[in-house]
Amino acid sequence: MPTQAARKPAPAVAESPAADDRYRAPALDKGLDILELLAQQPQGLTRAEIVKEMDRSASEIYRMLERLVARQYVTRSIAGDRYALSLKLFALANIHPPLNRLINQALPVMDAFARQAEQSCHLGVYDRGNVLITSQINSPRGWSFSLHRGARVGLLDTASGHVLLAFSDADNAARMRAEHTAVDGEVPITEAKLQATLGSIRKAGFLERDSQQSYGVVDISFPILGPDHCALAALTCPYIRRIDRHVGPDLQAARELLRQAAQTLSLTQGVAQPLP
């Protein structure tokens, strides 16, 4: 029987009032709804249980299930009375490592940001207690502050680290902090100040502050969110203001461009929302 946690799955693509109906694909949505429902049920469900949970007719569910079985996304028990997810989605997800896929998707978006904002930006992910810089794009103007790809920076004193912590669930945040070891030059922070900082990041949906590592730099950092609204990565711009005669995008413009870039890469509708 379905567990208590099972609920009628949300549509595969969140719809907004402005959604263009020309791009609706009800059959695809139906198939994705079945996959998402079965993902919550490690022991599988009977066809009747799936029909009940999805509130659809038995005939349309039967046709979709048969196609999913034929394409090997869903398996049927030997007795033929229960359906469960196969390992095909797992196999497809691992054809290319997830981090490589994220980097490949992020690079053109980061490059567009750098050209429009005339600032550098970098992508940071959590890795073994701190933050690993996986991608870096320099400003095309030649004037910028940048971090080398592969650099490791502090979890507890950088904009990227604080954004990753702010948009992690409680269990992951505790694990990240337990694994943390101080990096060279790390700025200490009290527990009270850290919690206040993380709270303000969640409330605003991003972080903007003077760099704690370099003078004259303002760090702007947005989370790249997964479907669960937790951070997959942090997209950060170390903004520097030129004082010569060249007039480029100001801090506010750079912040908005970075917000749009993070939203483009996130797997949610909109940018960061506070976690429950």
What is the structural class? Answer: alpha+beta
Cα-to-Cα separation, first versus last residue? 28 Å
How many domains make up the 3D coordinates? 2
Portion of residues in helices?
25-40%
Broad CATH class of the largest domain: Alpha Beta
**What pattern of helices and strands is seen along the backbone?**
HHHEEHHEEEHHHEEEH
Radius of gyration: 22 Å
**How large is the count of helical segments?**
9
Question: Do you know the CATH topology of the largest domain?
Answer: Beta-Lactamase
CATH superfamily of the largest domain: GAF domain
Largest sheet, if any? 6 strands, antiparallel
CATH architect. name of the largest domain = 2-Layer Sandwich
Uncertain stretches of 5 or more adjacent residues: 3-19, 270-276
What's the β-strand tally?
Answer: 8
Strand content: 15-25%
- Strand order across the biggest sheet? 5-4-3-8-7-6
Output mean pLDDT.
87
Tell the overall outline.
elongated
